[in-house]
Amino acid sequence: MQGLAKPFSWPITIYYEDTDAGGVVYHSNYLKFFERARTELLRSIGVSQHILLEENIGFVVKHMDLDFIQGARLDEQLNVLTTVSELKRASITFCQELVNPEGQALCKALVKVACVNNVKMKPQAIPQFIILELTKSEC
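Given the sequence above, the corresponding structure tokens read:
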């Protein structure tokens, strides 16, 4: 099952704290940028992390592939573009790109997240309302 007809875009500003001594984004900070964009995508479709936690539902990263193409630098204004490439009963695979204003990708990620019961720490079906929102033609 596919979702998100068009990419969800989340703006990122590169701050001093994101960079190494050379003013280039430290590699682990790309993970934070991608995580924030996935969280904001869910928020944009009405998914509350607080309500999910109250229902013992969580999303955990199961697998991630990263491709560091070009270093992002201090003070750059960038966007994380996120699409759903695969939607299964208990997992979602996201394609994400950190892009500059010209649309050039600086870093790409393929991220598979699993829906789990937070008490049992076992996979469970993604709530139907999330699937419905992710498969709408417009996001």
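Strands lie at 8-13, 57-68, 77-87, 91-99, 105-117, 122-123. Try to locate this feature in the token string yourself.
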